[in-house]
Design goal:
Helices cover 59% and strands 10% of the residues. It is mostly helical and 345 residues long. The protein folds into two domains: 239 residues, no CATH class; 87 residues, no CATH class. A three-stranded antiparallel sheet has the order 3-4-5, with no helix packed on it.
Length: 345
């Protein structure tokens, strides 16, 4: 998230709604991480329930762990929902077609309903509320938490697939440089990994033994942490390009100048024909070569620029549109010889 903010600062742009949503997702992830650490060091995560009293001195067994587990599940739900919504908000600014916006807004509605429903399931699964962690209450009852978790996890996976698949037809139609396509492939590859992690987690939930929850839930909890972290990475990758743009442009300039110096240093010799000399083929190709005066003295002027960056600031582009950037190198040779003239490449 820090790199995402630095990218915005580098472009001279203020944070937008997608950035604030992602920042909120990171805050929720920090809350989840705090609950995990508390469960590990203070509540017996990773140990059998019968070992907790002996090792941690807790008379209530898994009660302290169940409190941390409730906080963890709520924070994970909020973080996942906010990261997905952040991606869709960012896509709506890029792809402005009517149908894309309609589907994206419906998906956002589905994600919001999923988050609210999941939090209600977590907090209302047991009656009274304290029975969520204090199983000694004689009148306490709980609904089937495993079944409800599987249903909620399935809706979460459906939302993941919609978020990943929705932009693909529009991205496919764009003319992109190779490294941009590779970046997008990596981005969506991470996205499908999130889906796979979610599916494995849902498959593991029925295997959790509620009578020994501190020990049997370890794998599902690890996958939950991994799912949340990968979702945040996925949402941040598309906006990190400004951090690496200058280094790529500098490399291109150095390569261009090297080529110019190489060609200027080669002596051009050839057979004289009607006052002109055929240039020596240094390219390795068999195409006809241009003709120049027999005595050639020339100078090279080179300019490197960017058609969008040098003439228009990023803020000048209307929000929601697509900016097409073209990098170019201009090379002008002024040739003086027996036949005066100007030759341009």
């Amino acid at each position: 998230m820090l790199l995402r903010i630095l990218g915005r600062v580098k472009l001279g742009r203020s944070l937008d709604l997608s950035d604030y949503l992602m920042l909120s997702s990171c805050v929720a992830m920090l809350g989840m991480t705090g609950a995990v650490m508390s469960a590990i060091f203070n509540a017996g995560l990773g140990f059998h329930v019968y070992e907790i009293k002996e090792i941690f001195g807790l008379e209530t067994g898994a009660a302290e762990f169940l409190k941390n587990l409730m906080v963890l599940r709520i924070m994970a739900t909020l973080s996942l929902a906010l990261s997905k919504i952040s991606i869709l908000v960012l896509c709506c600014r890029i792809f402005t077609t009517r149908w894309f916006r309609i589907i994206a807004h419906c998906t956002i509605g589905l994600i919001v309903l999923w988050a609210i429903g999941t939090i209600l399931i977590i907090t209302k699964a047991c009656t009274p509320f304290e029975y969520n962690w204090d199983k000694t209450i004689p009148t306490g009852t709980c609904r089937s938490a495993t079944l409800l978790s599987v249903i909620g996890g399935s809706v979460n996976i459906l939302a993941d697939f919609i978020v990943l698949v929705l932009p693909m037809p529009y991205i496919y139609k764009l003319q992109l440089a190779t490294y941009k396509k590779v970046t997008l492939m990596i981005t969506f590859g991470i996205g499908f990994i999130v889906c796979i992690v979610s599916m494995v987690k849902v498959a593991l939930l029925p295997l959790v033994d509620n009578s020994d929850v501190t020990y049997s839930i370890q794998k599902a909890m690890i996958l939950t942490i991994l799912e949340v972290g990968l979702a945040i990475i996925l949402a941040c990758i598309p906006v990190l390009r400004p951090l690496f743009k200058n280094s790529m442009a500098t490399k291109a300039v150095h390569q261009s100048r090297y080529v110019s110096r190489t060609y200027s240093a080669v002596p051009f010799t050839g057979q004289k024909t009607n006052g002109f000399t055929e240039l020596q083929d240094i390219s390795g190709h068999s195409e006809p070569l241009p003709m120049r005066p027999e005595k050639t003295y020339y100078s090279t002027v080179e300019a490197v620029g960017n058609s969008s960056e040098d003439t228009k600031k990023p803020d000048d582009v209307e929000m929601g549109g697509i900016t097409v950037k073209k990098e170019f190198t201009a090379r002008i040779e002024v040739v003086h010889g027996t036949d005066k003239g100007v030759h341009m490449d």
